[in-house]
Amino acid sequence: RSPGTYDIKLVVTTETGCKDSVVLNDSVKVFKGPLIDIIGDTAACVSSQLDIDARVISGDTDLLKWQWNFGNGNSFDRKDPPPQTYTSAGPYLITSFVTDEHGCPDSATRTINIHPLPTTDAKPDATICFGNSIQLNATGANSYLWNAPTGLNCTDCDNPIASPAGNTVYTVTG
User: Fold this and answer.
1) Over the range 25-64, which residues count as b (16 or more CB within 10 Å of their CB) and which as e?
2) CA 137, 142, 146, 151 torsion: positive or negative?
3) Which of 66, 97, 142, 146 is the most buried (most CB within 10 A)?
4) Angle 43-48-52 (CA atoms, 0-180°, nearest 5)?
């Protein structure tokens, strides 16, 4: 039924088919319940923060009681939860339950995907003579960022040429 106020009519039929009805001096009021959705990020890498929020499609936001379950052991009891972190890769089911001031409920779910971190490798340490160069090689990721004070011909490639002026440690993030 649609929201509104309805009269109550009781109809009784006996085993022999006799019928009687009565309209009661009472009524039933039907309320439109809340309607919510989950919005925000749908994927992240392990240990990254994931932003999740609620969207109220119908209902009075100020009068809704919230209960979130993030699938990572955390829960929250207000509309917009803090960013969530996941320590293991895989799919997670996020659920939000609401109840309005009349006790009418709604819920929403969203599956998020947490991706594993890449296994970046910069190969073994190397020693070169002063004034020489060496090609460094990183593997395991789609993009790279070398942390180098000086001496690299590129800092965002997988195989830069290193020409250090002295003892230098190069680190790469992939």
Assistant:
1) eeeeeeeebbebebebbeebeeeeebebebebeebeeeeb
2) positive
3) 146
4) 55
